[in-house]
Amino acid sequence: MARFGDPSVVITDKLRSYIKPIRHLAPNADHRAHKGLNNLIEGAHQPTRKREKLMGRFKSPRQAQRFLDAHDQINVVFRPRRCRMSANAYRQTRSDAFNLWYGYARKMNA
After folding, report:
1. What's the pLDDT tens digit per position in 69-110?
2. Cβ(73)–Cβ(104) under 8 Å?
3. Superkingdom, according to UniProt (predicted)?
4. In a domain, 82, yes or no
5. What is the SS3 assignment for 32?
6. What is the rounded radius of gyration, in angstroms, for the C-alpha atoms of the chain?
7. What is the domain count for the chain?
8. Is this structure's pTM higher than 0.70?
9. How far apart are CA 13 and CA 35, in angstroms?
10. DSSP 3-state assignment of 21?
11. 71 phi and psi, to 5 degrees?
């Protein structure tokens, strides 16, 4: 606070014990209590959370790790880092990945 001045907004989780210290330290600040509004770590796990919800929740950490290990290997093939390549290279990489996948699927069904 000494470096940047008084905050105009303070975001915390819904823990009630934050109310009095915030009123004391930043009386003019707007206090917003929200469960994850400023939680960057939780935001980074959003795709994992969506997959987890679709699967009806993982039953154990081991099951989650098994799924994520397998999914990560496939995800790397089908979702190359777009920021590091041109549009034409990206399209070609995606096309190669799908051709590879169709080839494996044909072998498995034959």
Report:
1. 877 777 777 777 777 788 898 889 888 888 888 888 888 887
2. no
3. Bacteria
4. yes
5. strand
6. 23
7. 2
8. no
9. 5
10. helix
11. -65, -40
